[in-house]
């Protein structure tokens, strides 16, 4: 069964004593008491081995062990491959540092993925990279997969988390799925409220909040480029088209100063001020657009008249 196979694999892995090649050679050096300057050789191995190819590491191991008459330890990365054929990798901060150093000459920024929010881990990674490449730009995933409240961070630690990362040289700090989770939260809370209170929930939770915070999507037709398309069509037709997405009957013309909530609604002074601000801007843009359209229409008529005379 699958369970039995998994148990057998776990038993084999525990008995096999899996380790990286640098770890295997370090053990061989430690197990050679008659080796001259064993401590120095061990220090050199630990300092250099993670930056070498496997063949170069084997050659260095042979030189370091030669005075003891011992050969480098046998190493087989084929035997522990998974059932699917994957090679096994022992991850860790040291492994991430070694890879980051190897890739530093070829990339602008380095990113170590972690399984928890931990400034100490990032500090170790940054120190290891900057010891070889000072000032190298780093990135950090403020992952929504972390259960941030479950990692013992105080309110003060959360508040300074980004600043602490910045001091380590982490110049790109991102949340991979912030928009996804924000959309899910907004849609869920709105749907539940709409089921109970209907359109009042949408007006209070979405439209008034968009107006209050001056969110461009309040006038989503304008935001999506409808005005731009109208102008492109006007250019192509000499302003002689008969229809326009943002024409006189367009519903977004309702978003003017007069569209603020009525007295019996719960509009705050900030909402009213925002509505007046946005409405005034919309009215000015409408007037400017009408003047430009009139000028283009007059120019087009002159062109048609000129051609008819020819």
TrEMBL record:
One of its GO terms (biological process) is carboxylic acid metabolic process. Residues 254-296 are annotated as: Disordered. One of its GO terms (molecular function) is isocitrate lyase activity. It comes from the Eukaryota. It holds the Pfam family ICL. Gene3D superfamilies: Phosphoenolpyruvate-binding domains. Residues 265-287 have a biased composition (Low complexity). Keywords: Lyase. PANTHER family: BIFUNCTIONAL GLYOXYLATE CYCLE PROTEIN, ISOCITRATE LYASE/MALATE SYNTHASE. This is Isocitrate lyase.
